[in-house]
Amino acid sequence: MILARLTRAVREQNWFAVALEFVIVIAGVVIGFQVTQWAQDRAEAERRAIVLDRLHDEVEGAVSILVRMTDTYEELNTARTGVIERMIAGDLDGIDTETNSVATVATTLYPAFSPRQGVYTEIVSSGMLSSLGDAAFREALGDYQSRVVFLQGQIDYFRERVNARPDIDDFDYVWLEYAPGTSRERSHVIDWNAAANDPDFLQYLLTGNNSMRAMSGWWQNTLESAQTLCAETSRLTGRACEPPEEPF
Q1: Which residues contact 184 (CB under 8 A, 6 or more apart)?
Q2: CA distance 196 to 206
Q3: CA 148 vs CA 135, 140, 161, 223: distances in Å
Q4: DSSP state, residue 127
């Protein structure tokens, strides 16, 4: 229809009509492009909102794990410091043998931090990162991810160092006993009076305590960065940051 009118206007040399038809055609094309772009932008915005919502769940899970781990490290560090001070003072009366044995054995344990990372991997691989959220959010996300990588690197490093240390079972006054109801059905028993008289054991304990306190600090730093990221995702999603009480 438009082509027929345009042809007739040219034949009649009605240049105003020709110009008007051109304007109508161009306007139609521009409006079509705008409608298409609007639909694409809306779909992309919905996609980003869904990704942010899923990322929020991931970060809440990470915070939950980190809280559990930092609390555990703090409890073990406190118990270990207490027994070190009592060993040095030569005052072992009434010592909590079970708690302090656990805190001592824990100096050889370096659990990995393996939070869910599926959404973050999707964000990076899809090229969405640069358009997701705002600068404050992206900075928080980058800081958290860098701390996760650093923490796992330190865990791997200290695991290697543990292999160069004596095994706690090498000490004559440390042995295993059957412990039904526990996850591994065994527990370490330490003769603390004998241990207190062995300088090598104190050095073993001091070395392990130093490593555990360093690890505790790095876990705490990672927790703080995860909490910051959780607050940023909350700001963008409108959801409260509510880490589950039980880690995933």
Answers
A1: none
A2: 13
A3: 20, 12, 20, 9
A4: T
Please, are residues 241 and 66 in contact by the beta-carbon 8 Å criterion? Answer: no
**Mean pLDDT of the residues in the chain:** 85
167 three-class SS: coil
For tokens 């004998």, what's the residue?
Answer: 194
Q: Tens digit of pLDDT for each residue in 34-93? A: 655 554 546 566 887 888 999 999 999 999 999 999 999 999 999 999 999 999 998 888
Rounded-to-integer distance, Cα 209 and Cα 119, Å? 36
Residue 97: both structure tokens together: 């043998």
Alpha carbon distance 160, 170 (integer Å): 18
Q: Dump the DSSP string for 3-60.
A: HHHHHHHHHTT-HHHHHHHHHHHHHHHHHHHHHHHHHHHHHHHHHHHHHHHHHHHHHH
- Helix runs in the chain, H state only: 2-11, 15-89, 97-105, 118-125, 135-163, 192-196, 199-237
- pTM for the structure as a whole: 0.81
How far apart CA 15 and CA 29 sit, in angstroms, is 21
